[in-house]
Design goal:
It is built from 5 helices and 13 strands. The strands form 3 sheets. It has a 5-stranded antiparallel beta sheet, covered by helices on one side. It has a 5-stranded antiparallel beta sheet with strand order 9-10-11-12-13, with helices on one face. It has a 3-stranded antiparallel beta sheet with strand order 2-1-3, covered by helices on one side. Helix 2 crosses helix 3 and helix 4 crosses helix 5. The longest helix is centred in the middle third of the chain and has 26 residues. The radius of gyration is 25 Å and the shape is elongated.
């Protein structure tokens, strides 16, 4: 079996100014001619002409590489690194509006991360354009607190900002445990006072955590936060947006569930009492399983 030889192609297209991950290929030319192409301003709004060389077996393969290259921006890679470290994130801001960031929820506020220097307030740029990550914690009071100002080496800087965020979350968690100001343990204590045993599950980080109540028929109930603290239980009660409690009838957790309580109140004490009441009223409706 003969393997096709690689050759250099130049891919020409339009990249979206709104989201640089979007590429519209106009042509694929044989040869390393990207430097010879005059990139003119496009008459199309919100697009920039673009050309880059790729080594591939044919023109279609070169175009596929171009799509993959543009889809992998600095912001996407940062989120992947944070998620690999067990840290849950969302994108914030408006794509292409000059105010994009990665948002990490914390007990006392949120951490916002974006580029700096030539990529200030940007996320969706090529890795080669990276000049540093800037991370700051925005709490309920006072000005943002700077946590990290990075440097141009993308891999080193990304590892450093991930470690900074992980350390900040761990410090907040330790402080919350020391003072008792932690939503998850407070809910578990309220469940215990109602005679309901519970446990915790999920990675020991901000990625995703929940409180589990095992039911007499072998099914289970999962409870965690919603709104600003979606998928979390480890946060300050002052940041509470509501508890979400779901009954999962299949012990294997096939994804089928019934919502027992979906709190919309930021009153932590009232919403905690309401979710405990919902669980307590639901449990007697279940029949014990054959092995219980």
């Amino acid at each position: 079996m003969t393997t096709a030889a690689l050759q250099t192609f130049t891919v020409i297209g339009l990249r979206s100014d709104v989201d640089m991950r979007d590429l519209f290929v106009a042509a694929v030319l044989p040869g390393p001619v990207a430097d010879d192409i005059v990139i003119l301003n496009t008459s199309e709004d919100d697009f920039t002409r673009w050309a880059l060389e790729f080594d591939a077996t044919d023109a279609d393969a070169a175009a596929a590489q171009a799509y993959a290259y543009c889809a992998t921006t600095a912001g996407d890679r940062l989120r992947e690194a944070l998620h690999d470290a067990g840290i849950y994130t969302i994108f914030g801001g408006e794509l292409g509006a000059g105010s994009d960031w990665v948002n990490v929820a914390t007990r006392t506020g949120e951490i916002l991360i974006s580029g700096t220097r030539d990529t200030e307030n940007e996320l969706f740029y090529d890795l080669e354009a990276h000049e540093g990550w800037y991370a700051a914690h925005h709490g309920a009071t006072g000005d943002p607190v700077e946590l990290h100002t990075g440097q141009p080496d993308f891999e080193t800087d990304t590892a450093a900002v991930v470690e900074t965020v992980r350390g900040f979350l761990a410090a907040e968690r330790d402080a919350a445990d020391a003072t008792g100001q932690n939503a998850g343990p407070a809910l578990r204590a309220a469940l215990a006072q109602a005679g309901i045993q519970s446990s915790t599950d999920g990675p020991p980080s901000a990625d995703c955590s929940w409180i589990v109540v095992d039911c007499p028929d072998g099914s289970f109930i999962c409870i965690n936060g919603t709104g600003r603290t979606e998928n979390l239980t480890d946060y300050a009660p002052t940041r509470h947006d509501g508890w979400l409690a779901c009954h999962h009838p299949d012990p294997e957790d096939t994804g089928t569930f019934t919502v027992l309580h979906e709190g919309t109140s930021r009153d932590f004490d009232a919403d905690t009492a309401a979710v405990v009441s919902a669980v307590r009223e639901f449990l007697p409706t279940l029949r014990p399983g054959p092995n219980t």
